[in-house]
Amino acid sequence: MSKRNVILYIAASLDGCIAGPDDDLSFLEAMQLEGEDYGYQAFVESIDTVILGRRTFMWVKNKTGTFPHLDKDTYVITRKQGGSEDGVTYWPGSIRKLVDELQSKPGGNIYCDGGAAVVNEMLRTGCIDEIILSVVPVILGDGIRLFHEGIPASSLVLLSSQSFASGLVQMHYRVLRP
Known about the structure:
By secondary structure, this protein is an alpha/beta fold. It has one domain (6-15, 37-176): Dihydrofolate Reductase, subunit A (3-Layer(aba) Sandwich). It has 4 helices and 11 strands. The protein has helices at residues 40-45, 54-64, 95-103, 116-124; strands spanning 6-13, 17-19, 47-53, 73-77, 83-85, 88-91, 109-112, 130-136, 144-145, 155-163, 169-176. A 9-stranded mixed β-sheet has the order 5-6-4-3-7-1-8-11-10. Strand 3 (47-53), helix 2 (54-64) and strand 4 (73-77) form a beta-alpha-beta unit.
């Protein structure tokens, strides 16, 4: 059985923000070109599990009316009560424990969908195996930073990089463990 990789697939501004002030994601709209998905559909087909924070989950549900990955096993990290609802499991426990449990079972890759607090906790606890980072050619100046202070230094190996007509540059890295 091959290991199920945990992959962070995320976009950030050139100055490292995944959202502007007040969770503003409008900077991503300029990257939405007809017929271009930056490899997202192929990526989604490689996963069968999604992990994300409660705030991110609620933002997506409020903006779209539904969560787009209900066909996947979805775990929402929360400090509140656990349980399941509409195919979503609310996980109040250790993210490391969740990842260990998921990786002990057969399946596809696991998608870390954010937000920043979940990403940083997963980096801090060594849960992320790969990072696919799309850098959007804009400087926001303020907003929600992708990487926080206090996460351990990590060495990365570049697996691929690609630039697009929109100016977006996507890099795919493997995270090396000490």
